[in-house]
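Quick start: load a record and inspect it. Here is Thiol:disulfide interchange protein:
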Amino acid sequence: MYSRRTSPRPLIIRLLASVSFCIFTVATFAQLGVAAEGVDPAIEKKLRLRLGAPQIGLEVQSVKASELPGLYKVSIVSGPTVYATESGDYFLVGDLYNVGLTGLVNLGELQRSNDRKDAIAAVPEKHVIVFPAEGETLSSITVFTDVSCFYCQKLHKEVPELNRRGVEVRYLAYPRQGIGSPGFRQLASAWCSDDRQATLTAFKNREELEENVCPGNPIAEQFALGQQLGVRGTPAIVTPGGEMIPGYKSADDLIAVLGLQ
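Running the structure step on this input writes:
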């Protein structure tokens, strides 16, 4: 129930993605360090140089202090977040967990959810195709979508029911076959239309429409955003809290996920 996009990736990124998750078990919450607001510029420079060396070839996007003293969260461009030592001589791929009184807390996924929420909130409203809730808006979902994937089409048929039950559906574009593909042109045509809702619906209903790819359309930018946030196929549904749900869900299932039952 998920339409995937396949594309070549740098060897090092594929190797990183294949590494099994590492779980740090911490006896008590008090043993966790508090992440600093900033990182010493000298440490950040060292990590960028070390991981970006020709024999490694990782492009560092950002460096932040982690919750575990001695390790730094290093975001890799078009790759995962890794946990590196100050020297950059060692790093781990996977999620950091806290063992608290209420059980395990996946700090890595918590950070990804916050990042998704912030990134989606930064998208200009004029670049989103919105199907508003009927009456009071009780919740919303943001969906990275393509027009040609079967499960995107199936999810779109659930939109009227979601709207009826107070859920706003907000679409961002994710052409699975990449920039310049037929899906890209159809998505651009929907975003460039005077009636974006109707045009997007028509394409998802497999109607043949004349393409209208206008200059300045946001499809490539939204595709890049989806890749940055970990979208690997469509539909990819993001909740208000930033949780990503891959694949199709019925209106009833989404209502339950959103806590509206």
